[in-house]
Structures are given as structure tokens and as C-alpha cells.
Amino acid sequence: MNVPLLDLKAQYATIREEIQQVTQEIFESQYFILGPHVDELEAQVADYCIAKYSVGVSSGSDALLICLMAADAGSGDTIITTPYTFFATAGSIARVGARPLFVDIEPDTYNISPDKIEQLISSLDAAARSKLKAIIPVHLYGQCAEMAPIMEIAEKYGLLVIEDAAQGIGAEYRGQRAGTFGDFGCFSFFPSKNLGAFGDGGIVTTNSDEWNQKLRILRVHGSQPKYYHHLIGGNFRLDALQAAIVAVKLKYLDGWTRARQKNAAVYRTLFADAGLEQIQLPVEKQSRHIYNQFIIKVPEKRDALRQHLQDAGIGIEVYYPVPLHLQQCFAYLAHAKGDFPFSEEAAQHTLALPIYPELTAEQQAYVVEKIKAFYA
Fold it and tell me: Does residue 376 register a pLDDT over 90?
């Protein structure tokens, strides 16, 4: 049996006619950059996230970058984030000339630890503390970080909060949607996301009139009006084609989320029935987990299990094999193995299993059967 990690063709088959209709409209209009389709998507995403504004941008990575630019983050600034995330989180910090300050994760959710954030800030002297600019928590794998204590810490020390919600659209913490706690919420429309485009794209949510206006200026090279530049921005514009496609898919997002949640429940039953108690399944700690990924932690032989499953035709992946503090490009931060043990443990022992909405119960049973056979 073949079980892909993600089957976008199966999803496309259910919305083909709508996608082809809206893309044909754009081909006929020849209006490809920003414009009414982007305006429409921005209004719909703001409504979905229960935010005042959303600003379409060129990618999830650029969403982070433009927020840091809007905050005037740069040389001399330090920004707190997690070392266990996709590269863009810390990469965007370095790109504006600021310095990442890593904080370890919670071992059960893999999200940044608020206690570790407080411990880090408390350990800094006055000079180092004065350089702190912001916190970038990541809502990893589709579950929100502990935002209440993070926001309390941010308020206590006068820090901005930029939520990396690339994997978290629709996730909730105490009933509130991801991307609406901090100053900015950054989302990705990369095709593998729960709400994916047919290429790159992203969006930023904010409840601030000032941030909304500045983001819109920065995404068009800092010009307002056209050809008059009071700021140095970049080309962060969202394609109309991608906006129109995402708008079609947004109508189905909650249904797809329910299917992912159902698949997660099926996995829990299958693992329990198989007697695989040694495998740690995802912890549902917050009020709405949208399961961008279904992450298991295995006690040993993770890479051998990975190969075993791949040989059986099962698509699996390691997110992420090398924590950011051990990446060569961040060697200048002078971190060493052991600095962030929970992040390193997750990198060495976790696997992502297929969880996409169209996954069948038979496919899931096959996945768990093969895992059981490996450990038997």
C-alpha cells in the first residue's frame, strides 16, 4: 500500500472546477499583482482569524521579515525565539541584522517554554536587557504556544510579540485564534500547509491601525504614494492568482481541519489497540489543535523506523533534524550540544506521520501496523 505524507492531488480533485473558474477569471482580467482578489482574501482571513486587519504578502517567511522591518528591528537588537522550528523564524531575525536569543521548548508540545523565556530575561544584565526587542513564539505543528504567560512577559518587559503562525491558521488558545494575541500574526500559504496556495504566499494579521498601514507601505518598496518613498521596504506583494486560490480553499478549511482531527483520533485508537505505549503521541494541550502535522516521539531507533516505513511505501518526515542553535550558519552565536536539551531530544526522536484530510482509515491502520511490526 502507498501512503503519501501529503496528497494534494486528492484535495484538488474536490475543488477543481472552482479553482479553474477563478483562475480563468484572472487570466482574462490580466490583473496579477495585488488588486481586488487580494483585497477580498485579506478581508476573509481577517474575519476567519477574528482580527481587525490582514495584509497579504509574498510568503510566510516574508511575513516574518516584513513584521521585523515594521518594528524597526536591526543591528543591536535581540529577539527571543525557539531553536526548534523551521529556519525562517530565526533566519528572518538574522536578515534584519538582529540577534536571535534561543529559548528551549516544552517537551510535550514542542512549543517555546514561557518559563524559559522568563528565566532567560531574568539572567540578563541591564545592558543586555535593554537590547531586547521582541518575542517570536511559534505555534508549531498546529497547536498554539502558551500565549497568556508569553503576553504577560512581553508586557512586563515592554517587548513586541510576533506570532509565527505559519502552521497554525485556525488554531486556538483559550478560544482565541492564533495570530491575534501579539502585535502581528504571520501565516504561510506554502502548498503543504492546511491552507495552501499553488505556490508561495503568506499573510500578516494585526489589530493595530498603525501596523496595518506600515505593512501596506513596506510591501510595495516603502512607497506612498506610488514612487514616493519615505521608508525602505521590499517587494512583498501577494499574487492575485494565489489569493484567489486560497480564497476558494478557505471555504473548506474548517471541514479539512475536522478531518485532520478525526484522523488524529483514529491514530490514538490504533496505537492503543496495538499496545505501542512506548510511543509518545501528540499532546492536545490547547483548545483547538489543527494538526498541521501528527508528530510521534519514539524512544529509540528513530532513523531505522523511518527507513522501515519508507521501504513500506509510507511517506514520513523529520521536522526538524537539526535544531537552529546547531546549524552552521548560526555558529557565531557560540552554542553547543546540550544547550537546549528538549529541542535536541525532539530533533533526534520525532517523526511526522501522514495526517492529511483525505487519508483513509485503511491507510492509517497500515501505518500503525508497520510501526508495530518494526518494534516487534
Answer: no
